[in-house]
Amino acid sequence: MQDTSTRARTLMAAAAALAGLFMITAALFIAQISLERVLNALLEVVETSPRYASGITLFSFFYPLWRAVGFVAGITLLVTAPALRNGESWAHATALTALAVPSISGMFMFLPYVSFVKGFPLPMTISWVGLAAYWTVLLLPKASRGERWVRFLVFTFIGMLATHSFTLGIGAQRMLLTRAEAPLFAGIEWWILTVVGEVDWIATALLIASIPLLALRKKTGWYFALIAALSAFAIDLPTQLIRTKTMDYLYGAILAVGLLIFLSIPSFKRMLLQAPSEEVQS
User: Fold this and answer.
1) At what angle do helices 219-242 and 248-264 cross, to 10 degrees?
2) Spatial separation of the C-alpha atoms in residues 185 and 181, rounded to whole Å
3) Which of 266, 163, 151, 165 is nearest to 214 (CA)?
4) I want to staple 203 with a disulfide (CB 3.0 to 4.6 A). Which of 66, 80, 194, 232 is the partner?
5) Which residues contact 267 (CB under 8 A, 6 or more apart)?
6) Residue 4 has what DSSP assignment?
7) How far apart are the first and last CA of the chain?
8) DSSP of 73-131, one letter per residue?
9) What sign does the dihedral 41-44-48-51 (CA atoms) show?
């Protein structure tokens, strides 16, 4: 980070600070408006499709939870922006992690929104702001063109898999809460949901934890991402074979395979973990 130009460090700090301001102001209202629109739509849907009733409980909890996490992440970005401007590596890793929050949470809020609410996908604005700043902070530090591409692919796939895995966990809980046989489970097609949901949530946590560690070029981050991707693939694929009415688990397995491939290519791994002094000049 110290060999990154002052202009690039200033741009990174500005992007982080602006995203932080957005997360502690506008994002609060966007999340609330989105939640209320989703809940109003669901109240109409459950009149004819009671199986969606659990969505009211789940979204009422997780929309505000992600909003609260985003608020703290926004404060974090404002606090760390000066250190990011000074080229401190810890600030770069912290900013990337904080910026992953709106990128993931906005996409999570977007999925039920577009499923039940017509019109412009309002929660995507949270994700767009997060992604714009995330990629800015990720790609501006001095590096070779090849390393920038590697970091773009790996860090983007980490975010995509984290989002999808978290959403799969929500979907599993939504179905379990309204199963006709509750509290019992009517066969493997139902109890498998108690495995896939929790495993995907654990994978999400590992993926988010891998971001700052990989940003600091720590092997622990590489292993966290590898374990998370393997876990998601190992549970999503059999769940898809058991529950064939949706392709969501197959998509999760495909995303996991993509991340596994990028992590496993020797040259990619080397560029992710090599010391800054070993970087090829850009």
Assistant:
1) 150
2) 6
3) 151
4) 232
5) 146, 150
6) S
7) 13
8) HHHHHHHHHHHHHTT-HHHHHHHHHHHHHHHHHHHHHHHHHHHH--SS-TTHHHHHHHH
9) positive
